[in-house]
Design a protein that fits this description.
Elements: H1 2-39, H2 49-55, H3 64-67, H4 73-89, E1 110-116, E2 121-127, E3 134-144, E4 147-156, E5 161-162, H5 163-167
Length: 169
């Protein structure tokens, strides 16, 4: 009888643990999925005044409230610093010279996938339609309160660089 009770308790514990971990993993991925859902339009439409009137501004022009839904406080500050630079320099480039979620000045993607890697890392992979080059982005997440937020994006390739490095220049 004790064996049956211990087995049931162990089974419930393992089930609860895997559900918590599964839910946590889904929460991490959901931040990245939501980011692409809300701003992936830039890979389909040219950014223009007309497009913005229907779809909104690109990521780098969003308010602190919107940015904080996806990014860590440190990355939000860096995005805002970049926006200030662009306002000051009117039409000139600052540090960020490409769409951060597509690693391209001309964002486009096909065969996109979002996968979990090690503990707080999500890997986004896709191909550029123009040349079928495979792109790998490594999203680093951190827990802010009870929410997961993106704390950096590593652009894997030659040379390997991260969004935080680019925005911190």
């Amino acid at each position: 009888m004790h064996y049956l009770i211990r087995s049931l308790l162990l089974g419930f514990t393992l089930l609860a643990f895997s559900t918590v971990n599964g839910k946590e993993l889904d929460e991490k991925k959901s931040v990245v999925y939501q980011l692409y859902k809300d701003f992936g339009w830039s890979a389909i439409f040219d950014v223009s005044a007309e497009t913005e009137s229907y779809l909104g501004k690109p990521i780098e022009e969003q308010s602190p409230d919107i940015l904080s839904k996806y990014f860590s406080p440190e990355l939000v500050k860096l995005f805002l610093k970049e926006a200030e630079c662009k306002q000051f320099r009117k039409g000139e480039l600052c540090n960020l010279e490409f769409d951060p979620i597509f690693a391209s000045q001309d964002p486009a993607a096909m065969e996109i996938s979002i996968n979990s890697a090690e503990s707080n890392v999500i890997i986004v992979q896709f191909r550029y339609p123009s040349n079928t080059a495979k792109i790998n982005l490594k999203y680093q997440l951190e827990r802010i309160g009870n929410q997961w937020r993106i704390s950096d994006i590593a652009y894997l390739g030659e040379p390997s660089v991260s969004l935080k490095e680019i925005l911190s220049r």
